[in-house]
Amino acid sequence: MKNLQIRNFLLKLHLCQGIGCHGELQFWRWWRAHHEPGDECYLTANDLIALKCVSAQNQKKFSSAFSSVALQELLETHLEQVNYLTIADPQYPVQLKESYLAPICLFYQGSLELLRFPLLSIVGARLADHYGATSLSQLIPPVVKRNIVVVSGLAAGIDAMSHQETLRNGGRTIAVIGTGLNRSYPKQNTALQQYIGKNQLLLTEYPLNSGPKRHHFVERNRIIAGLCETLCVIQAKQHSGSLITANLALQNNRNVLAVPGKITDPLSAGCNELIVAGAKPVLNSQHIIEEFRFDRIQNMKYDY
């Protein structure tokens, strides 16, 4: 059980205030370079500060939190009540590990088997209209027949519609949320979140009881962009969060696609701009499917 030591340490680090994603990754890079997978970890707060994992302004806060009873209790709660995946685990997706600011710890409900399949991330407008819904109803059925798993963020609009259309067609879907597993946002998607957590895969980097905060959704977007092989944008305004996700996907060398729309429609302005900038226009499902390498898919089987 030696490997659990590093898993537990990564979880503790992730739950601790004052370090943040950059510091967590700084530690992980150092650990990976100097230790074997089964090594145990006994680093103190001072050790982590010496490794420059903590910014100067947060050192006092981090030192206090790292040795606190509250953190130990929080750690025990998550060890007992939550399934979690760390960047040290073999099941952690390689493509996410190589992406921008990869999370060192993800909490989950459902089956990690879905991470073994080719992943298509779909993002778009929260105020998606009939055109967005029609686009999804035409594009998703042939995609899921090819065992491509649909990833989205369980937000209102295109996100929720993508999950629902996938499920209606017997496909698999992964939802990446911006709250703890026991919280939901928006509330109208609570039942959908519970279903996905029970029957598909629900992921978050946020601990139990974490509520929705504005910056959570920007941070969540990097995971959506990092998990996938291909990302498709369906309806997006100028300067929208979907375009941020698309840019993150481009930084990660992912395929970025966009469904074009009317030049007079504000909901299509972002997609049209992506296409002008070089994103592949999607006119039918084949334009999505041809982005995937199907030699990876044919021999895969679900274990449940």
Automatic annotation (TrEMBL):
Record-level GO BP terms: DNA-mediated transformation
Annotated ranges, domain Smf/DprA SLOG: 84-292
Pfam families: DNA_processg_A
InterPro entries: DprA, DrpA_SLOG
Domain of life (superkingdom): Bacteria
Family, per entry: Belongs to the DprA/Smf family.
Protein name per the record: DNA protecting protein DprA
Record organism: Pediococcus cellicola
